[in-house]
Amino acid sequence: MNNQSAIKVKNLVKNFGKDDNLVRVIENASFEIQKGEVVALIAPSGAGKTTLLMMIGCVIEPTSGEIWLGDNMVYKNKWLAKDTRRIRREKIGFIFQAHYLIPFLNVLENITLLPQANNVSPKDAQKKAFELLEYFEIADKAYNMSSQLSGGQNQRVAIARALANNPEIILADEPTAALDGERAVSVIKMLKKIAVEQNVAIITVTHDDRILPYCDRIMKIENRGIVFHDKDAKGIL
Amino acid sequence: MINLAARDIEHSLGKFIVTTMGVGMLLGIVFIMIGVYRGMIVEAEILLNDISADLWIVQEDTLGPFAESSRVHEDLKNIIYVMKGIDKSEAMTFQNIQLPSKKKPVRVVAVGYDIYGTINPINPDRLIQGRELKNDHYEIVVTDKTGFKLHDEIKLGRNFYKVVGITTKTVSNNGDPLVYLSLKDAQELQFLYSNKEIQNNVARGVVNSESLMVNTIVARVKNGFSIDEVAEDIRKWQHKSVYTAQDQKDILTKNLIEKSSKQIGLFTVILIIVSTIIIALIIYTMTLEKMKEIAIMKLMGLPNSLIISMIVKETLLLGIFAFVFGNIFSHITYDKFPKLVVLQIPDAWALFGIILVASVLASFVGVKKVISADPAAAIGG
Question: Which of B219, B242, B274 is the last residue of a domain?
Fold first, then answer.
């Protein structure tokens, strides 16, 4: 395995149901994503984008195949780790369509929650959180509740939260869907910058053609398999 | 580590306080129910303790004078007095009467005693105004709960009685206030017929001698004598039923209030079960409201233990604060109840323990929901 490889998927299959009710969602998907890359995952609705994202994120169990995260094979026809949640906690950051911040925690607590669950001391977790908040230019909002922030600010906090545990991979599910054009571009630029500066692989599910030019590659689910397209290709959405 | 339970409660503090107050009032009622039971026992023993007799001598084969009707001759006190081991003996009457009042008649238990005698049922510590009875006739000492004031005149039977003393917290075993009359007045009230009735009886050849009856003879035993042996002597030679102070307490608590206590006990158990179910429903609803956040936390990789501890802590905090509020509620309201309510610290601790166990049980429904929450529900549509 290449040392720069962040995600490697080999012959991945996902079926739902069985016999007459069998639904084949993903068939023999194989691909590799390098650290520092931003890859857009596109497909029509219901084609299996979220399912693929969830399999890579160790949330949904595939039917068969192999998944590597960094140097570790985490799935080979079954989960190889007892605690898949630990893998998520330590290696993966999630960004959602909406910010989905915990409403009863303030900005700082939202960002430090996961590192503290990873046994990082509260002091170190807060130091890292303030670095991220300054990076995203919202340090003055550290003690605000999410209800006191704008949509764009909340999304920046959500990205900061995803980065708080120093993940190797970020899985983003339509992170710009709820944002206007300017903010959407600003977020994808931010993700691109993070990918390069922090050597993080990012897969972002999107239907938004405004952000495709900022991605390194475009991965499309076609006929239940994975096809890569040039980022400048026209009419692929 | 961030205290998720505290943050969640802080975030919806108003809702939490209102919920806690609601559950707290329910727990307050549970505490008061236990207090009513304790009050019944205390009330049952007030008169016994104030009279402080070692022996209660009553009509043979009866459980008198409280559980069953009993009549013995007044002069039995003299016979008892001269028996071996007896220090003091007095005759007493107990009867339910209604005192006429401007608002509505007040039901009381009248205690008749010999004002020159050696056993006085009025406990000086409970006499808050006026004095004890000094005259053989037309004086009455009442309990403050009757609403009468010093020097009020109360018509009983044919005569008016002047209130010369007020006592407090003096009630009979069934919670009715006590009033005190001289033995002669009490005998008249209980046993003396109207003039017409007496004339009728004389015409029939019936001589009314019942005005010399009483309901019980109470006695105290000299130091050094066995109460049980003296009681046995009286049973053997006087053909009377004799009860020690402990027997009389047993009659009052076991025979008279046993059913009431069982009823209250059952109510208390039902209320505790209802409280547990209500706490469980509240926690279930609170958990349902947080399902999206719980799914996100699980998706991010937070361990179940962290999320479960949030639910359990919230349930325990709900139970603890409800208990505190219930305690405050019961202490504010307990003296408004018509019957005596005795709130005891050991009962409060027992209830606290039950609430903690009930809260942990109630949290299981929320915990079950957390365990079954699908992290995939946090992502996608």
Answer: B219
Structural domain includes residue B180: yes
Q: Do residues A202 and A52 make contact, with C-beta atoms less than 8 angstroms apart?
A: no
* Local structure of residue B251 (DSSP, 8 states): I
| DSSP secondary structure letters along B298-333 | HHHT--HHHHHHHHHHHHHHHHHHHHHHHHHHHHHH
pLDDT tens digits, one per residue of A187-220: 888 889 889 988 999 999 988 888 888 899 999 9
Instruction: State how far residue A128 is from chain B, nearest Cα, in angstroms.
Output: 15
Quote the minimal CA–CA distance from B279 to chain A in Å.
21
Q: Specify the 3-state DSSP secondary structure of B344.
A: coil
One domain for residues B150 and B198? yes
Q: Is residue A132 part of a domain?
A: yes
Given a cut of 70, is residue A113 above it in pLDDT? Answer: yes
List the beta bridge partners of residue B161.
B154
Asked whether the beta carbons of residue A85 and residue B293 sit closer than 8 angstroms, the reply is no
Q: Chain B residue closest to A58 (CA)?
A: B299
Q: In what order do the strands lie in the sheet with A38-42?
A: A92-95, A169-173, A201-205, A38-42, A217-222, A225-229
ipTM metric: 0.86
Q: Do A104 and B303 touch (CB under 8 A)?
A: no
How far is it, in rounded angstroms, from Cα B354 to Cα B320?
11
Q: What is the DSSP letter of B254?
A: I
Contact with chain A for residue B299, Cβ under 8 A: yes
Number of residues in chain B: 381
Tokens of B22: 């609601």
CB count within 10 Å of CB A59 equals 25
Assess B301–A contact: CB distance below 8 Å, yes or no: yes
Q: Provide the residue range defining the domain that includes B310.
A: 4-43+258-378
3-class SS shares of chain A: helix, strand, coil, % to 5 = 35, 30, 35
The answer to whether the Cβ–Cβ distance between A57 and B7 falls below 8 Å is no
The domain in which residue A105 lies consists of 35-61+79-229
CB A163 within 8 A of CB A198: yes
Q: List the end-to-end C-alpha distance of chain B, in Å, as a whole number.
A: 31
In a shared domain, residues B278 and B350: yes
Note whether A98 contacts B: Cβ–Cβ < 8 A. no
Tens of pLDDT, residues A16-58: 988 888 999 999 899 999 999 999 999 988 888 989 999 999 9
Q: Tell me what pLDDT residue A234 has.
A: 66
Domains in chain B, number: 2
Q: What is the pLDDT of residues B273-324, one digit of tens each?
A: 998 899 888 888 888 888 888 998 999 889 989 999 999 999 999 999 999 9
CB-based contact, B126 to chain A, within 8 Å: no
